[in-house]
Design a protein that fits this description.
The structure holds 2 protein chains of 2 kinds.
Chain A lengths: L2 E3 L3 E5 L4 E8 L6 E6 L6 E6 L3 E5 L2 E6 L4 E6 L8 E7 L10 E2 L3 E6 L1
Parallel strand pairs in A: 2-11
Antiparallel strand pairs in A: 1-3, 3-8, 4-5, 4-9, 6-7, 7-8, 9-10, 9-11
Chain B lengths: L3 E4 L2 E4 L5 E7 L5 E8 L3 E8 L6 E2 L6 E3 L9 E3 L8 E8 L7 E3 L3 E5 L1
Parallel strand pairs in B: 2-11
Antiparallel strand pairs in B: 1-3, 3-8, 4-5, 4-9, 5-6, 7-8, 9-10, 9-11
Classes of the chains: A mainly beta, B mainly beta.
């Protein structure tokens, strides 16, 4: 089976940095995605990692360690609009193309 | 239209009734998916379609059926709704790139009483 864990909620101050961790135990691994979801809206794609290391996109960065079954999403220079749920999703096996397994999401609350 | 649309936006349904949730995309993506999202459980895959004419079961398919007559449309049908099917339903499609990134529709909030 699959198990994807991420914290339920995190709170941070505007302008600060927050790191959202995701650990996974899957029967294989073929990529990890991060999505952002504002309340009442659809998830939107943020990042994709398939090789170990850091991927940077502006204020957002995502890191992957396949040997540790671990990823994090780093949000820098937090803005109020970053208040949202952040979803970690794993594609577990080659041949299961598209069949993502999602974590329950981390609610990030940005305070003034 | 651009992207993925879903209809209706929300619906209240009596238990036992039949309901079809509609999903249309104009990006010519081959693969499409239906998820349900429940508090504390995250997104769970109901059914998927890798290309027009083919469908497959996801993690939670019971009580749901799908069809894929063409590339653009992927309706989800609840044959006889039950209260446990109260949820937010998201349709998604993926872009056939090397990452096969999924893009989501705006969702349908369904309440079964």
């Amino acid at each position: 089976g699959q198990n994807i864990d991420q914290p339920t909620e995190m709170t941070a101050t505007e302008g600060a940095i927050v790191q959202i961790n995701c650990t996974y135990q899957t029967s294989g691994f073929n990529g990890l995605f991060w999505y952002q979801q504002h309340a009442g809206e659809a998830p939107t794609f943020l990042s994709y990692n398939v090789l170990d290391g850091l991927e940077e996109k502006g204020r957002f960065s995502s890191f992957l360690s396949r040997s540790k079954g671990y990823s994090y999403l780093l949000l820098k220079e937090l803005q109020m609009k970053d208040s949202a749920s952040y979803l970690c999703a794993v594609r577990p096996l080659e041949g299961s193309w598209g069949k993502l397994q999602f974590g329950a999401g981390t609610q990030v609350v940005v305070t003034p | 239209i651009a992207g993925i649309t879903q209809a209706p936006t929300s619906q209240i349904l009596a238990a036992g009734r039949r309901m079809t949730l509609r999903c249309t995309q104009d990006m010519r993506h081959n693969a499409m998916y239906w998820y349900r999202q429940d508090l504390g459980l995250g997104l769970r895959l109901i059914h998927y379609s890798n290309t027009a004419g083919t469908t497959g079961k996801g993690e939670v398919p019971d009580g749901y059926s799908v069809s894929r007559a063409n590339t653009d449309d992927f309706p989800l049908t609840l044959a006889s709704a039950v209260p446990s099917q109260t949820s937010v339903y998201f349709c998604a499609s993926s872009d056939d790139s090397s990452t096969d990134t999924q893009y989501f529709g705006p969702g349908t909030r369904l309440t079964v009483l």
